[in-house]
Amino acid sequence: MELSRIVITGVGLTAPNGNSLSEFRSNLLNGIAGISRTEIRYMGEVLAGICDFDPLRYQKKKELRVGTRAGSISIYCSREALKDSGVDIESINRDRVGIYVGITEHGNVETENEIHNISQFDYDTKFWTHHHNPRTVANNPAGEASLNLKVTGPAYTIGAACAAGNLGVVHALQMLQIGEVDFAIAGGVSESIHTFGIFAGFKSQGALADHADPNKASRPFDADRNGIVVSEGGALYTLERLEDAQARDAKIYGEIAGYHVNSDATDYVLPNPERQTQCMRAALKKANLAPNDIHIVNTHATATPMGDIQECQAIAEVFADCPDTYVNNTKGFIGHAMGAAGALELAGNLPAFEDRIVHPSINVDSLDPKCAIPNLVLNQSIEAKRVDAILNNSFGMLGINSALIVKSFLD
Q: What residue spans of 193-272 are helical by DSSP H?
């Protein structure tokens, strides 16, 4: 049986440097980052990527008090993606709509807050909120979106560490292809900056970035990089079968061409470049594309010393003889948005199908020689001869790897 072709018809996002695809893309092309200093309980001042979208655009104040930050990000991105797609949620069968949201972690924020709250009352649990359980269940971000949209089809999260944004899209594609749903909202979200545990954990690993200038703190590939900037954000897409999108004359951003997911099975946190290489090659095979058919490779690189080097080794192995394949990175602009990272980073590159401009990796003052791979786009955008296909890498702790390929839509 020939599987349906699946296309992207809407994009909704919030990032530390933009609350729409047009704003986000403009800032990527113009070198404008969005990192700032903030106070975190027990940690003091830290660097973080903070979003400034208006949650009251789609929620009431009471809903904000009951719900979560991740839920608000999901609702905002879902609504924005639907608006962008031109689909009226009121006019379609909501039993046949699926919501698939990738997350790195969820619930830590709420539990930390409640423990802190009852600590003010000698740990008397009568002061523990009755909203805690629905706030902390893993399916919360997708569930809050389903409540807001009154979607009665499947709505749940995909836990895949920092590969989760890609996995949300992959899962939606699969559910559309096997006929479980007719319309999908998918991608990834993160509320990570609201938990001190993530900051403390990275600091204890020696992997938390620091810099006098917040907007230069996240610097993948730079010789002086010193770790991760933790960020929040989200990017959700509307996905449809090609025939359905064409029937309503929808705008099509691109077609999902291929993907692959594998695991290192070697270390809790240290990546395995051999398995990353295998992941990219398997995605290319599924897409029926050769390496030189890819014109942009968006890297996962988080600005950790070994992680950047190992991914560059894997990319060089696959794309060694591809003069028209450019390599870029988005985390210098927005930090590491965890479960949202892959979805946001793909979104930032999608407009290149039309304008052929490859946004740069910024904050590279001195390129690490071990990251010096061909066609790495540094500090300034470049115009490519053509952009027909994008490969988006997203990797995560416990050795999960994902590569997602989107190609320019051709009728």
A: 196-204, 242-247
Closest CA to 283 of 397, 160, 402, 409: 402
Residue with tokens 């608006």: 83
Range(s) within the chain of domains with CATH label 3.40.47.10: 6-247, 258-406
H or E element that contains 72: helix 69-85
pLDDT tens-digit map of 237-287: 999 999 999 999 999 999 999 999 999 999 999 999 999 999 999 999 999
Pairing of strands 183-190, 233-241: antiparallel
**77 three-class SS:** helix
For the chain, the residue count is 411
* CATH superfamily entry for domain 6-247: Thiolase/Chalcone synthase (3.40.47.10)
Beta bridge partners of 336: 230
| CATH code that applies to domain 258-406 | 3.40.47.10
Rounded Cα–Cα distance for residues 226 and 219 (Å): 8
Q: Does residue 184 contact residue 175 with C-beta atoms inside 8 Å?
A: yes
pLDDT score of 411: 60
What is the separation of C-alpha 179 from the centre of its chain, rounded to a whole number of angstroms? 25
pTM of the model: 0.97
Which residues 6+ apart lie within 8 Å of 287 measured at CB?
257, 258, 389, 405, 407
Q: Decide if 391 contacts 405 (C-beta within 8 A).
A: yes
Instruction: State the catalytic residues.
Output: 162, 300, 336
Contact 57, 387 (CB under 8 A): no
pLDDT in tens, 66-81: 999 999 999 999 999 9
